[in-house]
Amino acid sequence: MENPGTSMQAITKVVMKGRVLTMGGRIDEMFQFHQVALNLRAARQELIASNIANADTPNYKAKDIDFSSALKGALGGTNATLQLEATAAKHLSGDAGESVMGAPVQYRVPVQPSADGNTVDMDVERAQFADNAMRYEASVRFVSNKAKDVLAALQN
Amino acid sequence: MSLFNVFNIAGSAMSAQAQRLNVVASNLANADSTTGPDGQPYKAKQVVFETMQQPGQVGAGVKVTAVVEDNSPMRKVYDPKHPMADQQGYVTLPNVNPVDEMVNMISASRSYQNNVDVLNTSKSMLMKTLTIGQ
Predict the structure, then answer these.
(1) Cα separation of B36 and B55, whole Å?
(2) pLDDT tens column, B74-111
(3) Interchain contact A27–B (C-beta under 8 A)
(4) How many contacts does A have with B, using Cβ atoms within 8 A?
């Protein structure tokens, strides 16, 4: 408000507008963490499902992501994959390999490697699958409760 | 949506394991078939699994790329009274090893069950997701 002569009405409008904006931003922020977490959990579930599906495929290597660093990266926006600069069409693309929401997909270190080159340990995969599903449902609960909180705040 | 993709992955594995079970059933059923449509004894069959990587997706399903015939030597049994016995009185029987086939069957059935569990878990996760905000 550089001009002190602005009418009262205009000021209230701006303030109201500002409030509405921050309110919308807050609600968005409230859900953003769980949104990212749920997306990552779902992507990890897919990875573990493909490990279980390929338990009998020769030379298949079990894959997973480091969830906590992937979540940190996704929230902080530091997961972006680096690209090599190419000045000619025939330069190598420098592809960083597979990634989930920007987080690198890593190979599991096998405890008991099998003769056919497969590194899927069904006990590990089943445990991780159940663990991931449980945590996904926990996140769903959190989101649900937050949505209820927001609704309660809006109604009163 | 990754959770829907889990259905495709687990489904592909279930169909591949079912095919493996099918081959096992065929091998066991024909363990004593001394002759086939071509006049030759039955040869044991095996499935070949391969990872099915969809472009742009990290998760990968599995598919049966080929059904190959086992080229190990056939079983020979001395039984001159058998109608399929050769000049020396030997009958050529299929190279099916029932122990191998039973192990294969148990392995296929366990893998199938694992994938059914994966599918059910993912389904219940999706159902829970639909209740967000209710």
Answers:
(1) 42
(2) 999 999 999 989 999 999 999 999 999 999 999 999 99
(3) no
(4) 102
Q: In this model, does residue A64 exceed pLDDT 90?
A: yes
Of A60, A98, A133, the CB nearest to B125: A133
pTM passes above 0.80 = no
Please write the tens of the pLDDT for every residue from A68-103: 988 988 888 776 666 677 788 887 776 667 778 778
**Strand runs (DSSP E) across A27-128, as ranges?**
63-64, 99-100, 103-104, 106-107
Chain B hits for A130, Cβ within 8 Å: 121
CA distance B123 to A132: 14
Which residues on A lie below 8 Å from B58 (Cβ)? 43, 46-47, 50, 63, 98-100, 105
Helix (H, G, I), strand (E, B) or coil at B75: strand
The amino acid occupying position B72 is: S
CA distances from B63 to A86, A126, B11, B16, B98 (A): 37, 21, 10, 6, 25
CB B2 within 8 A of CB A46: yes
Separation CA B69–CA A108 (nearest Å)? 33
Each domain of chain A, given as residue ranges in start order, spans 33-155
pLDDT at B32 over 80: yes
Within an 8 Å CB–CB cutoff, is residue B17 touching chain A?
Answer: yes
Asked whether the beta carbons of residue A46 and residue B128 sit closer than 8 angstroms, the reply is no
DSSP B37: T
Nearest CA in chain B to A135: B125
Tokens of B45: 């069959």
